[in-house]
């Protein structure tokens, strides 16, 4: 396949890779009613096609230039300094793999999950559109294209969170996500303006080449603005509040957009702008700190949730905190590695949770589950592997990436971030095993008896079960083994060699605690978290009176945690109220009183003077004329003054 | 003494003559038909006339002709504005064909063609008399057009427009008289004389002339007529008015700004215009917030859009004019497109101008809702539409011309407007389904104009039409 | 002094005088009304109905059409004066003008503009 890439590095197949999902989206959207369930197959096929093209471009790249990928396809010359094009390098290819690969599995799964929904085709149109938007984001070779993709994924996310728009909560969640993301978009726009004014180009290459010429305050400003955008998209504190609410969307959406791909766009942005971040120590400090705070806050909040998807949502937030702190402090390979493994095990967890939710008739509260190990063994094993991986049990994929991040924080000289992330690992083990135990051990506590288990008679008309089970089964493999396969061997691992051309190795002084000792400490902490979860939820005593115990536990959660650290209240007070107040000011005071009021005043005055005004119409025309005359008078006075000046 | 009437005169006037003859033809055909001429005959003649004039204008692009002793000049600049006016004519004739009542078709079509003549005359007007002639031809026809339906609000709109517009015209005419008094000439080109900067008459005349233009552009505080008139007038007339009046007035303003001011006086003379443009961007966008009627919404939007276009010209840079013309072209498409969508909806038996008719549109007619979304996004200035690119260009030209405060007001106004446009878009998608109904087949031409406008609004983003040879042709 | 100064003074005096004459009698007069005093002055006639009575709108239409054609006809005079100078061109212009006017006239006629219903 070496001939697919042109001599100059241009690569037309990239365009096909990028546009296939868009074609799928348009066809599903326009011909949805005619296609019926075919739309699911079509959408999945488009993604499959994109994935195959991604693999082709990878092999072409490795054959062409000895491992170093570097394809670029120019698309369109726009305004001076702004040219659009697609860029394939190790970073964007990795994201493309996840977006199309995991995306394909989730599309496939959705054919089962969304079966029977009356907007089946619309769902796949949105999903394919999302993939197109995400590919635009990661494949763009310049900041403007990135921003376009950035905005479009926000739009797709909005559509998909609010997919079941009959539910007021879904609509509210969609709006919340959109508004918070727009805050991020505006910040990125600001950064882009700042970059353009100083560099006069939007291409990544030109901008990164000019890093040296940007002053340090300017660099910090740009990085902070970019980080606000990254934080909004990746649910970092204090812009994280939309993510748990976003679980109102269908579960495949949560798996694809709000776990595996879109929420990691912030990680991508920082990794993409690595030259900017590496040049600004303050920016690294900021990103590392926020990432660490988010990681531990997400983990703490995950401990007190009862909704299975919300637990996973907070765990996502926490894990993205890891990624952000990784790429933030400069451990780019570690942060990206965690994105990579997380995409698999979190998609796995969500899809497996979806199996349960689907089987129990949309029940999401873990207190009304329990004892599902025997009824749904497949889901149990799937979630168990996911839990082991996310906790970083040695040997599982999560172990390799998480320890890279934790050790990277220390190696780059951030002991506090290091300590925080170790504590987070313990909390992660606690809440994930808590989820596992409450859901699968003990007695069944729900009332959806007819749905529980595989009651084939009930689901006779539905899509066959293998459609949903197959993707989950496929995901088990990378969840367990991809870390060991790719990241084993430190500097000489395939992972490190793959990224070596993109992220130059920095020699750092050896930290006081070695990598091996770090892994040992993390493992001990994880064990401790597991032990606490075991003693609280898995022992005979705990299961004896589970319903009562879970209720009292829910009652005893401190207010600060049930209120989620008051972030929603804070945002409500600072942003929502302010915005509402401004709106009210314009709509209620400025408009009626200043503008209408002036008109009404005229009417009132003329009425009291006993003039001819009887009907509103005449009053208004007179008022209009009065405003006109007022404007004219202002003009004339101005020109009279100027004329007096020149005379 | 003999009057020289050369072929250059004729060349300059031939597009206008074509439109005028088409108008007469419409009336003549109506005369010889029992009862009323069929709708497609009158509108067909109008469309053919408009297209023929457009082809002639396009063929003349770049040639300089002038008529009336230099009172009417053509060239790239005039051609662009003439094409915009003709586009507005074609668009609104198509809308009229889709929703108009048969009994007034001939009269309405003829009046539309004549007002187009007036607007085209303004586009090339290079002396005060031609400007006034064009303006009155445009306005008088529009007064009648506003009242051309049997609706109380339409008559009210016509009367309001007549009264307020005459007031403004009075100012303008007085301004022209003073300008003539100051210069002894009606030719705009004679105003370049730097000695005029110290003439009090010139300042007062220029100022009052600008009041007239500000009224026609519906800039705050001369905007009060616009919402009522837009709402009351028939839909096609509103569509025509919102584009053609603006384009023609902007042509006059641009010629005044770029080709007719004594050096050094421009900044001081035009400052009030920039200020009212700035206020318009805020008040126009804020005014949209409380509207429940599409035509009123677009009236307020138009107030703000006029402000945007003036922002591009602030400082009088060559690039600014090109950007303004780019934005005006984009505005033509997005505005006509939005009105075309409203016409298609009216055809469904809904009240096309009520915003409630758009609730759940995406479920009833997804393609139409997509088109409307594109137009509203463009009006709001969001990517990937021409409105976005236009606003970026405007910002860059106004900042480089030193009018940062106008750029700031533009951004603030845009921020305010997002809510109003967003609300409308949201209503189309997120509101629950309306009660089931069967969409009627609509005039294919109306559909075609929706599609053409949508494609143009997107395409202009990627292939910016900024002819580099426009500015030298202005003088 | 500004050449327009006297104009300004004249304006002020005119306004002041008008104001004075309309306000002063009200202040100075002795208010003892009787029917004779309230009668119309000298040759005036007592109105028998409301002044703002209703007219047929046709009246305005006919009046307006009269004014329009009257004004159009007035355009002939300048041409007549300059006819020799303008030669054939002027003649053609005038013919075009008349044709346009005739079409308008015919149109008004056909549409019943002259019918008093």
What does this structure look like?
The complex is a heterotrimer of chains A (647), B (475) and C (117). With 647 residues, chain A is mostly helical. Chain A has 28 helices and 2 strands. In chain A, strand 1 and strand 2 (83-88) form a beta hairpin. Chain A is globular and about 95 Å long. The longest helix of chain B is centred in the middle third of the chain and has 32 residues, at 152-183. Chain B has 475 residues and is mostly helical. Chain B has helices at residues 7-31, 39-59, 76-99, 105-124, 128-146, 152-183, 200-216, 225-232, 235-259, 266-288, 294-313, 318-347, 361-364, 366-380, 386-400, 404-430, 444-462; strands at residues 66-67, 72-73. In chain B, strand 1 (66-67) and strand 2 form a beta hairpin. In chain B, helix 11 (294-313) packs parallel to helix 15. Chain C has one domain (5-110): Up-down Bundle (Methane Monooxygenase Hydroxylase, Chain G, domain 1), CATH 1.20.58. The longest helix of chain C has 28 residues, at 83-110. Chain C is built from 5 helices and no strands. Chain C is mostly helical and 117 residues long.
The assigned structural class of chain A equals mainly alpha
Q: Which whole number gives the mean pLDDT of chain A?
A: 79
Oligomer: heterotrimer
As a percent range, the share of helical residues of chain A equals over 70%
Estimate the strand proportion of chain B.
Answer: under 5%
In DSSP terms, counting alpha (H) and pi (I) runs of 4 or more, how many helices of chain A? 28
What is the strand tally of chain A?
Answer: 2
The most extensive interface between chains reads: A-B, 40 and 50 residues
């Amino acid at each position: 396949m070496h001939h697919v890439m042109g001599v100059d590095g241009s690569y037309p197949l990239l365009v096909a890779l990028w546009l296939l999902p868009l074609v799928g989206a348009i066809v599903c959207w326009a011909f949805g009613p005619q296609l019926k369930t075919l739309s699911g197959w079509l959408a999945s096929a488009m993604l499959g096609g994109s994935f195959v093209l991604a693999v082709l471009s990878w092999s072409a790249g490795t054959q062409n230039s000895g491992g170093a990928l570097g394809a670029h396809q120019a698309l369109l010359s726009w305004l001076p300094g702004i040219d659009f094009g697609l860029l394939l390098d190790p970073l964007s290819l990795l994201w493309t793999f996840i977006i199309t690969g995991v995306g394909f599995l989730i599309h496939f799964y959705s054919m089962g999950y969304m079966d029977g929904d009356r907007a089946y085709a619309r769902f796949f149109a949105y999903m394919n559109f999302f993939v197109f938007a995400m590919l635009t984001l990661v494949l763009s070779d310049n900041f403007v294209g990135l921003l376009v993709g950035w905005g479009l994924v926000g739009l797709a996310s909005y559509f998909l969170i609010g997919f079941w728009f009959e539910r007021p909560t879904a609509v509210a969640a969609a709006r919340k996500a959109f508004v918070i993301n727009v805050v991020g978009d505006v910040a990125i726009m600001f950064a882009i303006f700042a970059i353009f004014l100083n560099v006069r180009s939007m291409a990544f290459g030109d901008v990164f080449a000019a890093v040296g010429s940007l002053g340090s305050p300017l660099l910090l400003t740009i990085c902070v603005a970019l980080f606000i955008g990254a934080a909004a998209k990746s649910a970092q504190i204090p812009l994280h509040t939309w993510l748990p609410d976003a679980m109102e969307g269908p579960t495949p959406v949560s798996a694809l957009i709000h776990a595996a791909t879109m929420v990691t766009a912030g990680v991508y942005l920082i990794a993409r702008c690595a030259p900017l971040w590496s040049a600004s120590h303050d920016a690294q400090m900021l990103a590392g700190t926020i990432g660490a705070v988010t990681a531990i806050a997400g983990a703490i909040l995950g401990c007190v949730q009862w909704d299975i998807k919300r637990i996973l949502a907070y765990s996502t937030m926490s894990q993205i905190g890891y990624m952000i702190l990784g790429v933030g402090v400069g451990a780019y390979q570690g942060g990206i590695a965690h994105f990579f493994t997380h995409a698999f095990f979190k998609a796995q967890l969500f899809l497996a949770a979806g199996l349960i939710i689907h089987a129990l008739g949309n029940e999401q509260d873990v207190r009304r589950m329990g004892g599902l190990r025997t009824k749904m063994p497949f889901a149990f094993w799937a979630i168990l592997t996911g839990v082991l991986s996310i906790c970083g049990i040695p040997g599982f994929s999560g172990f390799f990436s998480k320890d890279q991040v934790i050790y990277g924080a220390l190696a780059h000289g951030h002991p506090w971030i290091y300590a925080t992330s170790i504590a987070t690992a313990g909390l992660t083990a606690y809440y994930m095993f808590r989820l596992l135990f409450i859901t699968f051990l003990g007695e069944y506590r729900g009332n959806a008896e007819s749905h529980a288990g595989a009651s084939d008679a009930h689901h006779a008309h539905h899509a066959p079960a293998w459609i949903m089970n197959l993707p989950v089964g496929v995901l088990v493999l990378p969840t367990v083994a991809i870390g060991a396969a790719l990241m084993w061997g430190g500097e000489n691992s395939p992972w490190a060699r793959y990224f070596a051309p993109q992220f130059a190795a920095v020699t750092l002084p050896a930290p006081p605690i070695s990598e091996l000792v770090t892994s040992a400490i993390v493992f001990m902490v994880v064990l401790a978290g597991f032990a606490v979860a075991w003693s609280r939820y898995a022992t005979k005593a705990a299961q004896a009176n589970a319903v009562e115990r879970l209720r009292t536990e829910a009652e005893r959660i401190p207010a600060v945690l049930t209120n989620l650290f008051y972030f929603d209240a804070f945002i409500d007070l600072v942003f929502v109220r302010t915005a509402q107040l401004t709106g009210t000011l314009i709509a209620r005071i400025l408009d009626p009183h200043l503008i209408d009021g002036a008109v009404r005043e005229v009417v009132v005055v003329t009425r009291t003077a006993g003039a001819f005004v009887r009907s509103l119409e005449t009053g208004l025309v007179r008022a209009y004329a009065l405003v006109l005359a007022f404007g004219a008078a202002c003009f004339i006075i101005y020109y009279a003054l100027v004329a007096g000046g020149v005379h | 003494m003999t009057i020289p009437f050369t072929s250059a005169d004729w060349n300059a006037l031939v597009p206008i003559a074509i439109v005028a003859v088409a108008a007469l033809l419409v009336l003549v055909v109506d005369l010889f038909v029992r009862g009323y001429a069929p709708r497609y005959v009158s509108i067909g003649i109008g469309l053919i006339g408009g297209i023929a004039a457009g082809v002639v204008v396009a063929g003349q692009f770049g040639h300089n002709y002038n008529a009336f002793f230099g009172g009417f000049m053509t060239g790239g600049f005039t051609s662009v504005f003439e094409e915009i006016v003709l586009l507005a004519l074609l668009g609104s004739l198509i809308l009229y064909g889709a929703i108009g009542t048969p009994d007034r078709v001939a009269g309405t079509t003829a009046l539309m063609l004549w007002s187009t003549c007036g607007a085209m005359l303004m586009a090339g007007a290079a002396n005060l008399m031609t400007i006034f002639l064009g303006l009155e031809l445009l306005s008088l026809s529009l007064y009648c057009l506003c009242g051309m339906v049997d609706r109380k609000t339409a008559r009210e709109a016509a009367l309001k427009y007549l009264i307020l517009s005459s007031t403004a015209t009075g100012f303008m005419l007085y301004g022209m008289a003073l300008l003539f008094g100051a210069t002894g000439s009606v030719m705009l080109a004679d105003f370049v004389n730097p000695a005029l900067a110290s003439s009090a008459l010139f300042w007062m005349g220029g100022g009052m002339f600008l009041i007239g233009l500000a009224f026609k552009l519906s800039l705050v505080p001369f905007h009060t007529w616009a919402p009522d008139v837009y709402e009351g007038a028939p839909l096609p007339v509103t569509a025509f008015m919102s584009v053609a009046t603006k384009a023609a007035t902007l042509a006059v303003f641009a010629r005044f700004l770029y080709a007719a001011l004594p050096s050094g006086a421009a900044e001081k003379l035009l400052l009030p215009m920039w200020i009212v443009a700035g206020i318009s961007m805020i008040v126009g966008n804020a005014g949209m917030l409380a509207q429940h009627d599409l035509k009123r919404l677009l009236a307020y939007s138009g107030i703000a859009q006029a402000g945007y276009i003036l922002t591009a010209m602030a400082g009088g840079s060559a690039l600014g004019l090109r950007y303004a013309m780019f934005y005006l072209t984009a505005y033509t498409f997005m505005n006509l497109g939005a009105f075309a969508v409203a016409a298609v909806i009216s055809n469904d038996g809904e009240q096309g101008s009520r915003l409630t008719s758009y609730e759940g549109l995406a479920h009833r007619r997804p393609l139409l809702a997509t088109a409307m979304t594109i137009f509203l996004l463009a009006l709001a200035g969001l990517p990937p539409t021409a409105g976005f690119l236009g606003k970026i260009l405007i910002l860059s030209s106004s900042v480089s011309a030193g009018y940062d405060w106008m750029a700031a007001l533009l951004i603030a106004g845009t921020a305010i407007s997002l809510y109003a446009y967003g609300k409308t878009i949201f209503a189309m998608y997120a509101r629950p389904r309306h009660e089931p109904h069967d969409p009627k087949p609509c005039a294919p031409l109306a559909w075609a104009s929706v599609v053409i406008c949508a494609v143009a609004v997107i395409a202009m983003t990627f292939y910016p039409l900024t002819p580099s040879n426009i500015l030298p042709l202005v003088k | 002094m500004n050449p327009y100064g006297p104009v300004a003074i004249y304006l002020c005096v005119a306004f002041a005088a008008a104001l004075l004459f309309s306000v002063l009698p009200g202040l100075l007069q002795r208010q003892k009304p009787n029917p004779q005093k309230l009668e119309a002055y000298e040759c005036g006639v007592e109105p028998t109905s409301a002044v703002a009575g209703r007219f047929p709108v046709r009246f305005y239409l006919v009046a307006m059409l009269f004014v329009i054609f009257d004004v159009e006809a007035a355009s002939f005079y300048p041409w007549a004066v300059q006819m020799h100078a303008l030669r054939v061109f002027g003649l053609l212009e005038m013919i075009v003008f008349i044709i346009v006017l005739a079409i308008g006239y015919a149109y008004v006629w056909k549409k019943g503009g002259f019918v008093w219903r």
